[in-house]
Amino acid sequence: MDERAAVPPGLPRANPTTSYWQNPPDLIANLRSTEQLSQDTDIIIIGSGITGSCVAFNILEQCPGSKIIMLEARQACSGATGRNGGHTKHASYRSFMHNSRTLGVQEAMKIARLEYDCMKAVHAFARKHRINCDLQPIDTVDIFFDQSEFDDALQAVEYMRKVLKPGEGAARYTVYVRDQTRTKFLTPTALGALTYEAGSLSAYRFVIGTLKLALEKGLNLQTNTPALSISPSTDPTSKKRKWIVETSRGPINASKVVLATNGYTAQLCPELQGVIVPLRGQIAAHRPGSGMPAYGLPTTYSFIYQDGYEYMIQQPSDSRYEMDIIIGGGLTKAKEEGVEEYGNTDDTTLNLLISQYLTETTVKYFGKNWGKDSNEGRIRREWTGIMGFSADGFPLIGEVPGDRGLFIAASFQGHGMVLCFLCANALTEMLFDKDEENLNAWFPQAFKVRRERFQHKLTGRLHDKPTKDLEVKSQL
């Protein structure tokens, strides 16, 4: 693993696999707001996924007229956000016990509440701004195929109910025993299940919608313009710290730079090599089997077994490919339990062992309830994407110590749809030096950038962690 963590991420590669959500690409996919790059701006945001787009929107909402250039190496939203599994799912019970032991109960509660509140905030933002992104606020079910995993989950849920407020959203779970699970959720070999509030959407269309809102407010978006390096400088007039971002089309000067680059962050900030490690994930879109309910499945799903799991949503009936099933995971089914996927930023190819496994999953889990495959074949599309993971299992949000004006919002642990939106809010407060006491009231200290976190290197597979709760927790 040390060797894999030491591999430099490089720049995002040309001609990546096309995700289900990016076909066809939006009209702004290759947008350059201006033909020529400005040499000076107030803020540069590198990365056009959910984090970068939300930071840009927040800044322009709070400080109209701010000059912001957003750099994207490829098409708009071509990274992990545009390649994920479409889940907004907090699943906080999976990490709550570990967080309570290592950070304390209060901090664990903050993290659980942030994940739940972030899910709700994403849904509310999409509704408020009428972003057409196939949003479905819908319960999810975690189906267990390993008794020890189910026992651990029940223990965590019981503890969350004890320490959080009665009826609080982050602690609302319903438990199903074996026979109930097998009947209600069409999974004939399941041992038990948990259901809780969640949702599904096209994260690509959500971000494209957010970018369009920011463009209306004055964002300068420059796609197909990779940032090559970042270096400090001094303004000759004010003597203040500035930053020079070298791009494929020339340099840009800015007072502040935001790295919304997730798994690629160490390419521009080398001291984070091994601190934020890329991990390639894989997803497949299945045409529904003939035995699947004509009206659609009542929940989204995760299928949890010893040392791994898959996650799954179903497209709504009014989507382009109605009732398609999107399923991702299978990391531990690859050679050497997926070690070659760590440090791997090649999203132009697939892992064939994972492809074979994901192809078989729907029949494996639903059994005879799946029915016959579509006449067009089971698989509509497969793709890969690059996530970012840290050794301690938490995002890095904030200003880089000792580098005034350089900010990071990255390493979302494959859990970005219930982290990024509110982490972008927190970073915006940090950019403007807002009341830290107010921020600390809701934002976890464990997420903040601190120099000592740079000393923690990822040294083992995520599912090898003794607490079992630093797995790839969500959906690309």
- Could you list the spans in which at least 5 consecutive residues all have pLDDT below 50? 463-475
Number of strands: 17
Overall geometric form = globular
Average pLDDT across residues? 94
Task: Give the end-to-end Cα distance, rounded to a whole number of Å.
Answer: 20 Å
Largest sheet: 9 strands, mixed
Count helical runs.
11
Tell me roughly what share of residues is in helical segments.
25-40%
Q: From the alpha carbons, calculate the radius of gyration and give it in angstroms.
A: 21 Å
The string of secondary-structure elements, in order, is: HEHEEHHEHEHEHEEEEHEEEEHEEEHH
Structural class: alpha/beta
Beta content comes to: 15-25%
General description of the model:
- This protein is α/β, with parallel strands linked by helices.
- The protein is 26% helix and 24% strand.
- The protein has helices spanning 2-5, 50-62, 93-103, 105-128, 147-163, 178-184, 203-216, 265-268, 352-366, 420-431, 436-440, and strands spanning 40-46, 68-71, 87-88, 136-144, 174-176, 192-200, 220-222, 227-234, 241-247, 250-259, 276-286, 300-305, 308-314, 325-329, 379-390, 396-399, 406-410.
- Strands 3, 4, 5, 6, 11, 12, 13, 14 and 15 form a nine-stranded mixed beta sheet that branches.
- Residues 463-475 have low confidence and may be disordered.
